[in-house]
Amino acid sequence: MEVIGDLPRELFLEILLRLPAESLMRCKYVCKYWHSLITNPKFIQLHLNYNYNNNVCVLLKRCLVTCLGQKENLLSLVCGNGFSFENLDVDLSLYRKEPCLQLLGHCDGIICLSNYRDYILLCNPATRESMVLPESCLPCYPWIRSLISQTTGLGFGYDAKSHCFKVVRIVSYWEELRGSNLPHFSRAEVYSMGTDSWKEINVTVPAHVRYSPCFETYFNGAFHWYAMDDNGNEVILSFNMGNEEFQVIPMPSFISMHDHSICRNLLVWNDCIALVIYPERGIEKSFEIFVMKEYGVKESWTNVLTIGPLTRVERPLVFRKIDEILMEGSHGQMMSYNLRNKEVKDLPIYGVPKSFSTLVYVNSLVSVKGGNQMLDQRDNTDFGW
């Protein structure tokens, strides 16, 4: 075929699959044939699968201080064995200047960002597509003056049954005169990218989400938050994107609960939920790692590893590999810890202390505007060759 010269079609396809999304976005404009191929849903799925298998990176959000003393958000990618990183040029409304902007989840190259007030945004950093979600469908009860509403939980993920990306939002309502730190009640709604609309789901929210940005994790088709049940017990609250139901997962019974001097982070490690326990303060810190070997089963929590004691380390961020975890240093630098040789490395990545948030990330062509439903993995669509 003329558009690929003397190259076999299979080789031409393999070359394109190895290109980053940014390069493929430029290649679309070479000719009509290339545009048709690169925008084909089957090619987008193959490109995504290739990157999942070969090019998984870490997406990092941090704050930097400008020469005028103002804080600005910055998105960066940490890739490869040599810790190469690049800053992403993402032009998003409120992105740089919003001090409370949170990185809420990643799925198939799309990330979710929010300030937890009036701003929820989906973005593909590679294609530079973004979309602000429509307004909530939940009432704020303005006719009850003593009732205050607040977004307490947000999560982003993928529904494998309907092949659709979703955002879940939990809104809690407090009575001013009640004097309790737990809300009076909570309601939940789900945004579906396929319909571009919110719907309230008629389910009970069985626990109350407590703000803990280092805890919020998407895993196994469900989003997870740190929460308290009605009896004041610490639990993990999860929301399944497929059946749109909540589940309460107990914390390990053999760790000290209700101790505010102890931090709790939830990460994903070796295809399991991992709970990391460590002291909030101290020159030296040890990090205990508990793994839930059978998802949702309290008795399967196992203390598998203790890291440290380490100096100059503030908190864990993300497992980059099975034997490597990225951590934030006490002075706002990123560090790497190798679980095999117990070696700590300082990385040339800096930010405002405690402003770091991270996600495991893959580069993709998946759109946040058109073609919002991914193909079934068994789809046999060809490319018209």
UniProtKB/TrEMBL annotation:
InterPro entries (alphabetical): F-box-assoc_dom_typ1, F-box-assoc_interact_dom, F-box-like_dom_sf, F-box_dom, SCF_F-box_component
Pfam families: F-box (PF00646), FBA_1 (PF07734)
Domain of life where this protein originates: Eukaryota
Ranges where the F-box domain occurs: 1-46
Protein name per Swiss-Prot or TrEMBL: F-box domain-containing protein
The species this protein was found in: Gossypium raimondii (Peruvian cotton)
